[in-house]
């Protein structure tokens, strides 16, 4: 039974979901078990909420998480190929549109204050399943990071992400800037920022979603040339129009350690100038 408890000092929410300890590979990452995300094993997952089909077979499917962290928690399997990588899937734009559609559906639930769309790729990034997938997790409270950033956007006269000219650019496209933030917290951290001011993922146009999918494939390729594991998260601001949606991405080279956990402050070991150049070369 999932529940929300609140930090005694700060009042910040924490999700408690003890049932997730029973999921496959919850505390280890080597398994000979049958993969429930592979074709032919669809009965091993909860009933689908959506799928994409091509030539009579599915190429992506979404369904409730069998071990949910909250009432609304979905898995989006992004390829039928057990060993697929996001950078090489055939129709990344269609997969991205499925993710956005599921985000819109979850945000429409009355008890969802925030829906987090994210990818844990590889053991170092927190993935318990090897098969390529993303997750969508809806919670009834605004997460602390989102609340802090929303408040910061709201108190400035000009949106800091509407003009990224001062940042270190990996690549610019018609609709997006792909940058290495100058005050990054993780090694080789990147942000993909829409040039148009939108506060939520759901506001992206079909053309923007397609272009974003292409950039995500380039970023995935670049990060996998640096490390076998990576994370990305779609950061939305449902409570303020001042917020500017972006995607936060980084390969996982090191663990978050005692200083970071004890202070909430990060020690950065890779100069963002180096990060921008390497991601430009690798992606």
Task: Describe this structure as you would to a colleague.
This protein is an alpha+beta fold and about 280 residues long. It has a single domain (about 5-20, about 35-280), classed as HIT family, subunit A. The chain is built from 5 helices and 12 strands. The longest helix has 19 residues, at about 205-225. The radius of gyration is 18 Å and the shape is globular. The N and C termini lie far apart (about 40 Å). The relative contact order is 0.14.
Radius of gyration: 18 Å
Estimated share of beta-strand residues: 15-25%
Report the CATH architecture.
2-Layer Sandwich
Shape: globular
CATH superfamily: HIT-like
Secondary structure topology:
Elements: E1 3-6, E2 13-16, E3 50-54, E4 57-64, E5 72-77, H1 92-107, E6 114-121, E7 133-139, H2 144-154, E8 168-172, E9 176-180, E10 190-194, H3 206-224, E11 230-235, E12 246-251, H4 258-263, H5 272-282
Antiparallel strand pairs: 1-2, 3-4, 4-5, 5-7, 6-7, 6-11, 8-9, 9-10, 10-12, 11-12
Helix pairs in contact: 1-3, 3-5
Main attributes?
HIT family, subunit A, two-stranded antiparallel sheet, 22% helix, 10-stranded antiparallel sheet
Brief write-up:
The chain is built from five helices and twelve strands. The chain has helices at residues 92-107, 144-154, 206-224, 258-263, 272-282; strands at 3-6, 13-16, 50-54, 57-64, 72-77, 114-121, 133-139, 168-172, 176-180, 190-194, 230-235, 246-251.
């Amino acid at each position: 039974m999932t529940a929300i408890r609140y930090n005694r000092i700060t009042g910040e929410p924490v999700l408690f979901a003890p049932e997730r300890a029973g999921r496959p590979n919850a505390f280890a990452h080597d398994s000979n078990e049958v993969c429930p995300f592979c074709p032919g094993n669809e009965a091993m997952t909860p009933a689908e909420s959506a799928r994409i089909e091509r030539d009579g077979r599915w190429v992506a499917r979404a369904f409730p998480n069998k071990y949910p962290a909250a009432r609304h928690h979905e898995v989006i399997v992004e390829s039928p190929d057990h060993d697929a990588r996001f950078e090489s899937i055939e129709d990344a734009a269609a997969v991205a549109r499925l993710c956005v559609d599921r985000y819109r559906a979850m945000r429409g639930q009355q008890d969802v204050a925030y829906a987090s769309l994210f990818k844990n790729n590889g053991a170092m990034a927190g993935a318990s399943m090897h098969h390529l997938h993303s997750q969508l997790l809806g919670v009834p409270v605004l997460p602390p990071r989102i609340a802090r950033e929303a408040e910061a956007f709201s108190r400035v006269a000009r949106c800091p992400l509407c003009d990224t000219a001062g940042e270190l650019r990996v690549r610019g496209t018609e609709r997006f800037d792909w940058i290495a933030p100058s005050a990054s917290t993780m090694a080789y951290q990147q942000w993909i920022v829409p040039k148009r001011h939108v506060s939520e993922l759901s506001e992206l146009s079909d053309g923007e979603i397609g272009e974003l999918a292409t950039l995500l494939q380039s970023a995935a390729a670049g990060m996998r040339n640096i490390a076998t594991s990576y994370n990305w998260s779609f950061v939305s601001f449902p409570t303020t129009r001042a917020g500017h949606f972006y995607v936060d991405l980084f390969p996982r080279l090191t663990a978050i350690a005692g200083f970071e956990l004890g202070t909430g402050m990060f020690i950065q070991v890779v100069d963002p100038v180096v990060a921008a150049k390497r991601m430009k070369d690798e992606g």
